[in-house]
């Protein structure tokens, strides 16, 4: 097929106001401007639109700059050789990323034919009727049949990243990869290393943020891609872990529990997202902290990578420490090395390592004393939030269908107490306002500078967290007692 005639699709294309406004503004453009790619697919499915790809004969960077200026957004020249520019604009529906690129070949048909899968190779003329679809490769029929099919016989072979994308979109959209395309996907596994590590990372990040990342990871593992990206998971296969068939199955159960928890506390939650006893009780207890937890999870890392990917990656790697001689510390070190291999930022690496070093602590707390709580948060900071979330997912993943309700309620209460200390009693338990600084201590106790000053400040801070020290005199008495104890030693 090669028909570029616009026609009515099987269901209406649904566009947000920002696209309609853009169409009005560009209606008198001298050059054709087409909406292409996933935006057309999502409009046909009625899904929210966060990314908009536009294709033009020439002047992609120039048009992106004009769009950014018109919509009062930010502009970036992404690729001067391919004439690709980006506008980031804030709309009533949230941030919209608009990429404008020169045709991938001689005209619209060549551009669409050079794309990955037919469901991503449909177009709409932005200067004309936005209700009409241009579909030369049969993407609409494949979308109706829930089928992912390559645009050309060389589509996957020419870019192995597309194989990983096929896995993601099959799970994300609930579609099957057709037989010929699947053969190409399997064949591309051994060539994934030919792609830049940044492109592998970016597609892997997208895979971890689908609504059901455990399903996407399972498919990626079955097809052999996951062992290419995260080779550390290979030893987990077939390794028994308690009542679970093997550590890899346990890992996937933890990933699923964590993604379900994130969904259950998110603004998009429904009555069904926390229908189980385990999630239901946890969500109920975390309700006072829900807005602040969502703000934490909504954090963005460099290049707009969502914080959820660090959480899912931590869940994916957390079992590695259980098969290493050094335990969690060794597992965290290996995870840090994998973060380097994936070219994550230093901040992402540090957060990942901190989560894996500390996620067992909430599980092992027995009484959750004020001193334990203080030390946990003082040593972890914001990473402690992630460690608590992973700890609950680890508990649920290990229990599976045999969750002990009484023991789970104790665990839930422990997490609630931890979050209450961090979110509502921070300056009382986590970081009390210092009663004395180092200079005051040295002057009051006639001490010289040295490591002992830091030890005394730490001892006083911990005494404040437990309520043992409330005044300056309390602090001095504790400092004197500490010095006396050291002197006796």
Description:
A hairpin with a 3-residue loop joins strand 9 (300-301) and strand 10 (305-306). With 489 residues, the chain is an alpha+beta fold. The strands form 3 sheets. It has a 6-stranded mixed β-sheet. It contains 24 helices and 10 strands. The protein folds into 4 domains: 1-145, Beta Polymerase, domain 2 (2-Layer Sandwich), CATH 3.30.460.10; 152-224, Hydrophobic Seed Protein, CATH 1.10.110; 230-429, no CATH class; 438-488, no CATH class. It has helices at 17-25, 38-45, 60-70, 108-113, 139-144, 161-172, 179-187, 197-208, 213-222, 225-229, 247-265, 277-286, 290-297, 308-317, 327-341, 346-358, 361-364, 370-380, 383-399, 405-424, 426-430, 438-445, 451-466, 472-488; strands at residues 33-36, 51-56, 74-79, 84-91, 94-102, 123-125, 147-148, 176-177, 300-301, 305-306.
Q: What's the count of strands? A: 10
| N→C terminal distance | 88 Å
Strand neighbour order, sheet with most strands: 3-4-5-2-1-6
User: Low-confidence segments, ≥5 residues, pLDDT <50?
Assistant: none
| Number of helices in the DSSP assignment | 24
Mean pLDDT: 91
Helix content percent band: 40-55%
User: How would you sum up the major sheet?
Assistant: 6 strands, mixed
Strand content: 5-15%
Note the quaternary state here.
single chain
Number of domains: 4
Structural class: alpha+beta
Rg, rounded, reads 27 Å
Any idea what the shape is?
A: elongated
